Structure formats: structure tokens, C-alpha cells
Amino acid sequence: MEPKNHQNDFTIEEVTLEDIHLAFTERRLTSRHLVDLYLKQINSLNPVLRGVLEVNPDAYDQADQADKEREECRTGGRELGRLHGVPVLLKDGIATKDKMNTTAGSYALLGSEVARDATVVERLRRAGAVILGKASMSEWYRFRSFEMPNGWCARGGQGVNPYNKEADSGGSSSGSAISVAANMVAVSLGTDSDRSIICPASCNSVVGLKPTVGLTSRAGCIPVTLRQDSVGPITRTVADAVHVLDVIAGFDPRDEATREASKFIPAGGYEQFLNVDGLKGKRLGIVKKPFLDFLSESSVPSFELHLQTLRDRGAVLVDDLEIAEVDIMLNPHHSGEITAMLAEFKLGINDYLKELVSSPVRSLADIIAFNNENPDLEKTKEYGQDLMIASEKTRGYGEDERKAVAQLEELSRIGFEKLMKGNELDAMVTPGWRASSVLGIGGYPAIIIPAGYDNDGIPFGICFGGLKGSEPKLIEVAFAFEQATRIRRPPPKFV
């Protein structure tokens, strides 16, 4: 059958990178037309969903350049990568040296000028990706106040879950997940310090991959805590997440953590682990307590069926495991996580602001003052800024912070690491996103994929977590499960 030659037949609904790449190759699609389709979708849906803060005024120019390069490669016989000519949305905490803002969702940084692209953005550009725009997020990664809801920021308002308007949109990479779920873009980048990729991916029925801390550079990203921050993809399929990871992972002299973590990157990259038989022989630790309690009653049977699918596909399940001191790990005030993060946030934010070429604010104290001076703009009266104020009161990295970090390391050692090593596991399996703190405090990787929908149509995910550097095993397990179940469905057309 001859391929169709006109682009009007191409649809962006649930399209994958492979679909896009094939359409490019068969001349059924140009990057310019793809950008146009996504911008029309954004214009249609974003007024309701509020997943995108701004679109890149240079997106069409970048697409035209990609189309030109593709034609040149046809004559030269050179292959282009999976992301070439593909639009990508970036969480608003990831810096771009262009006409767009980088604000963490706050008006306080509107108009600030960064010195350079974030390293992950440099790598996307080198791969030929089109930077489509900035995705909304929980303002300041929700490290402004616990009173602030997931998915809210001053610049964008409240992000809306496309599956159920009353449901949680997740955070803090809410806009990245909403936009991918609603087919306003195929792939996006988020950041995760503790749940910020895993939670919104679960809530919006998409794939979220949180790499081992340091596997991807954080240079040029507005920080929460460099001890836990990680940049990763949010997509609709495991394969697409892996293709993005292959582009953005690697050593960066601007981020010291990448020096050690880059040693985990396998020769040949991560695509080779997209193995449909990847569950065979894998030892999976099933941890239900207390995470199953957070699922709706109508979702529990689906999770139990998934365990049987894992068995049927050749995995060895070590069932009903428990993580030592898990209740402490899930409480940031008891684990020491908040104590450490309060000091780390102030130090990191102040360092980031100092590096800006120009900015209305130059310190955390300036941000607090801006919020006080603009209470209606930033909804300070409704949501407050208690975490920021507490962070500003810290005095560097003292004895309390060192004790807190030591406790976090000990909790990880006697909890997650003992569980994994003592049972010789390839991955831990948990329902939903609530295990993200267990993984976040130790800098461990995780991947969460769609696992079903409750009686109200609200999505939930299944999370696979592993020890540092275990991305190959996690990818194999997640991809094989995804291919066996193919659960994800697009959101209802209620907008």
C-alpha cells in the first residue's frame, strides 16, 4: 500500500515518537505542521486544563529548521534521532535562554533573564527537538506552603485533571503531565525531588520516569534540593520516555552529581532494554502496606489482577513485603526530610538567583517580600508562604541538618535498600504514587505507568522502583508490563 502524501490525515491523538518519525520519513508530516497541530490543541484545551503557561514564539522557526535538516539528510543518507523535529514541553523550572520565561510558576521571576539554557535543554536542542513551550507546575514546587493545592501557580491558575475535573492533578510537574495526557504534546520534561514526576504521572494516566539522582543534569534548573532533585521525562509510553532519557542523560561538568551517576549509563544507551519479554525471571517485591490504602476501593481489584499479569509474564513475585520504618519515611517532619530541605532550598534558590543575568528578585528574602507586596497576585492570603519563611530563617547547613541527612540515609539503608538486597529484588512494585518518598529521599530511580481507572474514571498508576543505576531493569519490567496490558486510554472529550 502506498503511503499517503498529505498531512491532513495525520492525527496527534495518542501519537508516539515512532509514529511521528515514520510520518516524517514517509513525507506525510513536517515538523511545522506538527507544531501547528499541537498549538491548535493547546488553544482549544488549555483555557480549561491550564497545563501550559506559555508557548515559544520561535517554535515555528525551529520546526522549519528541523524540516530543512531532514531534507538535507535525505540526500546525504544520514539518520536523524527520535526527537528531531519533535515538539517538547518543559516544566517552568527548567531554564531556556530564549524569549520565554523561567519562573517556577511565580510572578516574582517574570522577566528574569537566565545566563544559558539548562543542560537538558542544550541536549534537546542538539537532538533537533523543538522547544514548544513551558508547562505549568505547582508554584515553587509546592515548597511555598503545604496549604497550596497540587497543580496551582499564580501565573497559570489551577491545573485541571483531564480525566475528572474534580480529581487531583498531582504535582509539582502537573502541567507536564496534564499536557501529555490531553495530547497537547507528545513528550515533556518534569523534575522530581519527592513525588513531583511520579505523582502527576499517576494522577493523569501517563508514564513518568524519575532517574537516579545525577543521571540527568540539574544545571540551569530552579532547585529544591540538589540531594534529591532529578530531571526526567513524562510521556504516554515507556518507549517514548526511554528515547528522551537517552538524549538527556550524561555527565555535565556543571553538575558534580553527574560524575558518579553517569557511570551507570550502559554502553549503547537505554533503548536496548525495551524488551517485550523483560519480565521473565525478574524478582519483584510487592509492597502493599500502606500504599494500597490510598487507592480507591474500586481500583484495588485491578492492582491484584496486575500482579497475576506479572506472574504470567514470567516474573517471580515476592509478595506482602514491608519496608522497615515506612511510616517515618512517609512523614517528612519525622524523617528529617523537611529539616534538610528547608536549609537546602534557601541555599539553592539564592545560588540560582545570583547567576541570573537580570531578575526582579535576587534572594529568597526578596521572593517573600514580593509575595507580601502582591498578596492578590500570588494569593498569599489564601495559600500563605510558611515553608519559604521557615526556609529563610535557616542559617546554612548546621548540626541539625547534618543529623537529618544522616537519619534519611539510615532510613534508606534499613528500609528500601535492605528490602531490595535482602530479597535479591530487581524492582519494588507498589500501587499508585505514595511510595515516592521512600524512593525520593535516597535518590533512587522509579518509573510509573498507567494501571487503570476507578469508578469515577480517575486514573492510577503502578510504580516500579529500584536501587541506584537500576534503570535498565526498571525499563525492562515497565515496558513488558505496558505491552502486556496496554491500559492507557485518552481522557474524555469534556472540554
Structural summary, described in words:
- There is one protein chain.
- With 495 residues, the protein is α/β, with parallel strands linked by helices.
- The protein has one domain (9-485): Amidase signature (AS) domain (Amidase signature (AS) enzymes, Alpha-Beta Complex), CATH 3.90.1300.
- Helices cover 39% and strands 13% of the residues.
- It is built from 19 helices and 13 strands.
- The chain has helices spanning 17-25, 31-49, 59-76, 119-126, 174-181, 198-203, 238-248, 257-261, 300-312, 326-329, 332-335, 337-354, 364-373, 375-378, 380-383, 386-392, 399-422, 436-440, 471-485, and strands at residues 52-55, 87-91, 130-135, 152-153, 157-158, 187-192, 207-210, 230-235, 283-286, 316-318, 427-431, 446-453, 459-465.
- It has an 11-stranded mixed β-sheet, sandwiched between helices. The protein has a two-stranded antiparallel sheet with strand order 4-5.
- The longest helix is centred in the last third of the chain and has 24 residues, at 399-422.
- It starts with 16 loop residues before the first helix and ends in a 10-residue tail after the last helix.
